[in-house]
């Protein structure tokens, strides 16, 4: 165990303390209090929005080189400190240490990528329909963005929302997820250390009240949210009411199809990674394994063997392969869905038991459930835990229909050696991202990210697509 941190909000470049009535616990050992936290509300959000508004004109007019330097320096600092910050992340969120350090490095690379993007904002020159008239389009900053981020990527997702927002000249008020404020605060501190001017990024720690105050505040021009479908729908409604721009990244119920011609070992490893790494707490996790008849029994048997062999334990223990769930509530969601799947006729092939451990933590046994039906609740609702189910199908066509038969459409994968089926799947899977012979989770940071149907709303995040949401176009006509 290590020291308990005392966190502050960051408003106008200053640390603003509070009553420290909240706390974030280590899910691997809940006796370890990672941080005591202030509980912000509408008043802190209002101060933060005012600070962001005051900083906006100066930041919007700053040379892109200034924005490049801050993001690039912050990226370098984060890389240097990835071992410590990755450890804090794993201690607070519960993913394994390599996953925590890996995510911190990913956040650092996101900052560096968007440092470069600050210098690459394009416009257009177009011919007018009227002789002697010229038309230019420009991309301009929008104003203040409210960012509401989840606990499952407590540094990468804040980084991939903050970086494009500030690279393109906007300012920010961010609310980190309740269970993981310390990791987010570490990122905000590094941005300031890297020379970020006061008020460009403001952090308000707290619960749903903070999120609601951000969504409702007339001084917030746009909102980017990653989280659950239910909360996201409310965010969208609140934003619409006052015509703020909005971008939502929500759940998935991502299918992984395994066809008869797949290499068994490879298919099993892809499923193991997609379903169970990061404790299955990824919106891109493969939760529906759709397996063709001819390989089905061998696939289920080998995957069960590998799932049963996963070493579940303290996130900071080097022997651990899968850490705990982030909170008690999240652990109970997994337990609940295991019961729902059993009641619906699913067969638990491995896992499913309540885990007893030598320390108090939110451990869940990785669980594989076979013989489930496509329309069962376990196959239509997001679990967000280390629980995967298999569905048996006779053909590729049936597999595709099952894969597409849910309300979500974030990521979809197929394991096959057939070019014909792989290409057909890339075209016809109803998802924002398709993966051929790769896990549905674990995406690159420099390309667009997002889904279809109920998984996403608004312009894509990340990569070259991020400029859409974080800038607005001005069309200028001129005649001499
Ligand atoms: C990944 O799979 O690498 O919340 C990223 C999530 C996603 C990010 C997944 N927005 O899980």
Automatic annotation (TrEMBL):
CDD domains: ALDH_KGSADH-YcbD (cd07097). The active site is at residue 249. Signal peptide: none annotated. Pfam families: Aldedh. GO terms for molecular function: aldehyde dehydrogenase (NAD+) activity. The keyword Hydrolase does not apply. Residues 23-475 form the Aldehyde dehydrogenase domain. Keywords: Oxidoreductase. InterPro entries: Ald_DH/histidinol_DH, Ald_DH_C, Ald_DH_CS_CYS, Ald_DH_CS_GLU, Ald_DH_N, Aldehyde_DH_dom. Its EC number is 1.2.1.3. Transmembrane segments: none annotated. PANTHER family: ALDEHYDE DEHYDROGENASE-RELATED. Belongs to the aldehyde dehydrogenase family. This is Aldehyde dehydrogenase (NAD+). It comes from Brevundimonas bullata.
């Amino acid at each position: 165990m290590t020291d308990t941190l005392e966190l502050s909000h960051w408003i106008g470049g200053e640390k603003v303390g509070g009553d420290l009535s909240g706390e974030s616990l280590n899910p691997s050992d809940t006796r370890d209090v990672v941080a005591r936290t202030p509980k912000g509300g509408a008043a802190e959000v209002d101060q933060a929005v005012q600070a962001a508004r005051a900083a906006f004109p100066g930041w919007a007019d700053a040379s892109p080189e200034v924005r490049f330097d801050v993001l690039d320096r912050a990226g370098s600092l984060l890389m240097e400190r990835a071992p410590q910050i990755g450890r804090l992340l794993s201690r607070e969120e519960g993913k394994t240490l390599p996953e925590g350090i890996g995510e911190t490095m990913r956040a650092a690379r996101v900052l560096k990528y968007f440092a470069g993007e600050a210098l690459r904002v394009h416009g257009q020159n177009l011919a007018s329909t009227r002789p002697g008239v010229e038309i230019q389009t420009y991309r301009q900053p929008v104003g203040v963005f409210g960012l509401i981020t989840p606990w499952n990527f407590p540094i990468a997702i804040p980084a991939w929302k903050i970086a494009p927002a500030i690279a393109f000249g906007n300012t920010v008020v961010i609310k980190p997820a309740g269970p993981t404020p310390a990791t987010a605060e570490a990122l905000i501190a590094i941005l300031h250390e890297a020379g970020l001017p006061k008020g460009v990024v403001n952090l308000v720690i707290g619960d749903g009240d903070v999120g609601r105050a951000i969504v409702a505040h007339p001084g917030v021009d746009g909102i980017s949210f990653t989280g659950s479908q239910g909360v996201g729908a409310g965010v969208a409604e609140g934003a619409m009411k006052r015509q703020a721009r909005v971008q939502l990244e929500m759940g998935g119920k991502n299918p992984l199809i395994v066809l008869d011609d797949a290499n068994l070992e490879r298919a099993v490893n892809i499923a193991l990674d997609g379903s169970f790494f990061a404790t299955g707490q990824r919106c891109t996790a493969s939760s529906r394994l759709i397996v063709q008849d001819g390989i089905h029994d061998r696939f289920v048997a080998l995957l069960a063997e590998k799932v049963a062999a996963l070493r579940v334990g303290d996130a900071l223990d080097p022997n651990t392969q899968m850490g705990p769930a982030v909170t008690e509530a999240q652990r109970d969601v997994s337990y609940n869905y295991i019961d729902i799947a059993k009641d619906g006729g699913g067969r638990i092939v491995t896992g499913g038991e309540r885990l007893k451990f030598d320390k108090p933590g939110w451990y869940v046994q990785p669980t594989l459930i076979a013989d489930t039906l496509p329309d069962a609740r376990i196959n239509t609702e997001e679990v967000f835990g280390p629980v995967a189910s298999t569905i048996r199908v006779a053909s590729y066509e049936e597999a595709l229909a099952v894969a597409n038969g849910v309300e979500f459409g974030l990521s979809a994968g197929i394991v096959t050696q057939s070019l014909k089926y792989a290409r057909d799947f890339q075209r016809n899977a109803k998802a924002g991202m398709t993966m051929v012979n790769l896990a549905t989770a674990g995406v690159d940071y420099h390309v667009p990210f997002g889904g279809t149907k109920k998984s996403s709303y608004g312009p894509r995040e990340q990569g070259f697509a991020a400029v859409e949401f974080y800038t607005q176009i001005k069309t200028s006509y001129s005649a001499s």
